[in-house]
Write a structure and sequence with these properties.
Length: about 650
């Protein structure tokens, strides 16, 4: 029960949190709506009312009646018999020096202006001037020869090809210097500014397309790039001007706003991290219907379908986008959500303003601003997304800098650890070397000294003691020589051993034949250690000693050569040292050892043990007369003598 009581206040608390975020956001959007409406009123261009011509006689559908501009026509399609507005203006000959013009702030879809029966302006010559979404103004100079002192006639033929009714704003006739500033202001607001936005939009479309190609796992960039491309096409595609035959593709591309708005909704869903619902594809259905039917049937069907399906789809998309951004603001509370939400509110307000004009609820003007605000929103979204991407790159750079610092710190710690490990390895190597020296001195020199002491205490003759002392001295020299740095060249150690062996054999009148069959002798071994050397030298000493003491040899040959491996893992050179004598030889058991348990057998076993400690292979052979000890050295000596333990 206590747990249920604890969970009960969670929902009210969550509701209060949502309300605390939602209410301020909605108040902010209300302020933005008010600011947008005021902005539309304040930014309304001021035309020179002193030169306005508002009273006209309209002839339409075979009937004439007086009208006052601005005026909506009754017909939606009037190419064959266009409405004809006829009015008058007064000209004074004293104003001829300044030059007079006729100025049309707004009309739909095309207009032809004549002064005193002579055409001075035809907007059909400029295809972009007939676009209702640009509010394009027109101005034309009136030749001085056409103007008469006093009353002059002006006629305006309004060509309408639907699906909206025709509209003609107030006509202004007067000095060009008085009309030109108003014309340039409208051109800046409704033509140049939209082209600038569209150019910026095209640049962002290219950037976003590249970002999507480089980051395919983030489709949000591709969706927004596609929406911007459609917006750019609508901005720069020349519209068809009836009755001329045109391609059907431009007509359907100009009516692609429903697809563009659906893509914006898809962008919003993906941008804020939500999954696109399955039924979301229905949002693209109206735009696809307009596209397919327009390609099949051709104009004017795309314009009619756009009015019936396209405009409601755009409004629905804007409403859905407003809901998406509102949910994102409540959940995320970040700058991107607020920015996009405010942009959507502005566009939705402008769209409602345009709908009021389409349905003639607002009868004094027809200025469409939703396309301009829509382009500005796309540019704002693209700029915000690019800013977000740039911020992510900065975060990546910052992280990379932190990572470099951490790697540097880790490298310093690793170097210190390596230094400690090297010191420990050096200490361990020194300890192992001391142990080896003590073992060698104990096994060799220690035993010899014990023998000398024992012989002295028993009172043996001096010759015996002398031989023992010489053996001890020989062993001491062997240990000392093994400590020399020979740089991995075993031939240097063998040279020292040759001198000692020659001196050992001289009193016995035994000749030592030294043979090096290969120019390089033995291969270099950088991994060669002193304990390797001493084991090899002791093997050679044992072989020579056996030949002197047990084989009664008169001649000993030492052969040194380098052989090459030829199969499998035996690639690479290896050294071979052979000691051959001409003595009486010895018998071998089945296992390759010397037969019996004599001192010779023990010596041969010691030789095999020493060879194994070095990673070498010892081969013994005896054929009745003479014996051969063949020591095959390894290609790489082992790092330690653990194999011998």
């Amino acid at each position: 029960m206590s747990e249920i009581a604890a969970k009960a206040p969670v929902k009210p608390a969550r509701r209060r949190l949502l309300a605390s975020r939602l209410v301020p956001y909605l108040l902010l959007q209300a302020l933005i709506v008010i600011a947008t409406i005021l902005g539309l009123r304040l930014l309304q261009p001021s035309d020179p009312d002193d030169h306005a011509v508002t009273a006209f006689s309209l002839r339409e559908d075979g009937m004439a009646r007086p009208v006052t501009l601005p005026h909506f026509t009754a017909s939606r399609y009037s190419l064959a018999d266009p409405p004809l507005y006829t009015g008058t203006f007064t000209f004074r000959s004293g104003d001829a020096a300044s030059g007079w013009s006729v100025y049309l702030p707004r009309f739909s879809n095309a207009a032809e202006v004549a002064v005193n029966g002579v055409v001075v302006l035809d907007s059909r010559r400029d295809a972009n001037a007939n676009r209702p979404d640009r509010n394009t103004p027109q101005i034309a100079l009136i030749p001085a020869s056409l103007l008469r002192d006093g009353s002059n006639e002006i006629t305006v033929r309004l060509f309408v090809w639907g699906p909206l009714k025709g509209f003609l704003d107030t006509v202004y006739v007067g000095p060009d210097a008085a009309l030109r500033p108003a014309y340039e202001t409208r051109t800046l607001l409704f033509v140049t500014l939209q082209v600038v936005f569209s150019a910026w939009q095209s640049i962002l479309a290219v950037i976003l397309a590249i970002m999507w190609l480089m980051r395919r796992r983030e489709p949000v960039y591709g969706v927004l790039a596609a929406a911007m491309v459609l917006g750019v096409i609508q901005a720069f595609m020349p519209p068809p001007v009836p009755p001329f035959t045109v391609s059907r593709l431009p007509a359907v591309l100009l009516a692609s706003a429903p697809i563009e708005s659906a893509l914006i909704v898809a962008f919003g869903v993906l941008f804020f991290g939500w999954r696109w619902p399955r039924y979301g594809i229905l949002l693209f259905a109206p735009g696809l219907i307009i596209f397919v039917v327009g390609l099949i049937a051709g104009p004017p069907l795309p314009r009619i379908l756009f009015l019936v399906l396209g405009i409601p789809t755009v409004g629905l998309s804007l409403f859905l986008m407003a809901c998406v951004t509102t949910a994102a603001v409540i959940r995320r509370q970040d700058a991107a959500s607020f920015t996009i939400g405010c942009a959507v509110t502005i566009v939705l307000t402008c769209w409602i303003h345009d709908m009021l004009s389409v349905f003639e609820i607002v009868t004094n003007e027809r200025i469409f601003v939703s396309r301009l605000s829509y382009s500005a929103m796309l540019v704002a979204i693209g700029a915000g997304l690019t800013w977000r991407f740039a911020r992510a790159l900065n975060q990546v750079d910052s992280f990379a800098g932190q990572l470099v610092t951490r790697v540097r710190e880790a490298e310093e710690r690793l170097k210190a650890s390596f230094a400690r490990e090297e010191e420990r390895a050096r200490a361990a190597a020194l300890a192992n070397e001391r142990t080896r020296l003590m073992r060698d001195l104990h096994d060799g020199l220690g035993g010899q000294l014990v023998s000398i002491v024992a012989l002295s205490e028993r009172g043996h003759e001096g010759a015996t003691i002398t031989d023992a002392a010489r053996a001890a001295l020989k062993d001491l020299r062997l240990v000392i020589d093994s400590m020399d740095d020979i740089g991995g060249d075993l031939m240097l150690a063998l040279g020292s051993w040759r001198e000692r062996a020659t001196a050992q054999l001289r009193p016995h009148d035994i000749a030592l034949d030294w043979r090096v069959t290969t120019p390089q002798g033995l291969p270099l071994h950088p991994e060669l250690r002193p304990w390797h050397v001493i084991q090899i030298v002791r093997i050679l000493d044992e072989a020579v000693t056996n030949a002197v003491k047990h084989a009664q040899a008169r001649h000993i040959a030492v052969t040194i050569e380098t052989l090459e491996g030829s199969q499998g893992n035996d690639q690479g050179p290896y050294g071979v040292i052979s000691v051959t004598d001409d003595g009486c030889g010895f018998a071998l058991a089945g296992n390759g050892e010397a037969a019996g348990a004599s001192q010779t057998a023990r010596g041969l076993r010691n030789m095999r043990s020493r060879a194994a400690r070095c990673g070498a292979v010892l081969d013994l052979s005896s054929e009745g007369s003479g014996a051969r000890v063949r020591l095959q050295l390894p290609r790489i000596f082992p790092d330690s003598d653990a194999a011998a333990r």
